[in-house]
Automatic annotation (TrEMBL):
GO CC annotation: large ribosomal subunit; plastid
Name of the encoding gene: rpl22
Lineage: superkingdom: Eukaryota
Localization in the cell: Plastid
Family, as annotated: Belongs to the universal ribosomal protein uL22 family.
One GO process term, biological-process aspect: translation
Keywords attached to this entry: Plastid, Ribonucleoprotein, Ribosomal protein, RNA-binding, rRNA-binding
Record organism: Membranoptera tenuis
Protein name per the record: Large ribosomal subunit protein uL22c
Main location: plastid
A molecular function (GO) term: structural constituent of ribosome
Pfam families linked: Ribosomal_L22
Length: 119
């Protein structure tokens, strides 16, 4: 099985994060190799970095499991695609003065990361 033309992806669904905030991080790691992206995510001060790093590690383990190779060079694996789609919005109500209600929208998102190996 050749890894050259195959792309391996991992998806995180229904994460309680805003798509705007996640896309800001995904734009920075797209096109980088696995080690560099993992290091960047570890030291960025954003909440979404922890979830994105877990999805990135899951995509790497997909490569290892599907190829029966345990010694994959992570310097040659790059992030070919990384994007966030909007998920369903949780709608809540905050009570206000004089019997009024104030809507609260809690966004969710789906994060997809695709990896491929370069030669």
């Amino acid at each position: 099985m050749d890894i050259d033309n195959k792309q391996y992806k991992s998806i995180g669904k229904y994460l309680r994060l805003s798509t705007h905030k996640v896309r800001r991080i995904l734009e920075q790691i797209q096109g980088k190799n696995y080690k560099e992206a993992s290091l960047m995510l570890e030291f960025m001060p954003y909440k979404a970095c922890k979830s994105i790093n877990k999805i990135l590690q899951s995509a790497l383990s997909n490569i290892k499991n599907n190829n029966d190779k345990l010694d994959i060079n992570t310097n040659k694996i790059i992030i070919s695609k990384a994007f966030a789609d909007k998920g369903p919005t949780l709608k809540r109500i905050q009570p206000r003065a004089q019997g009024r209600a104030f809507p609260i929208h809690k966004p969710t998102c789906h994060i997809t990361i695709e990896l491929k190996e370069i030669i």
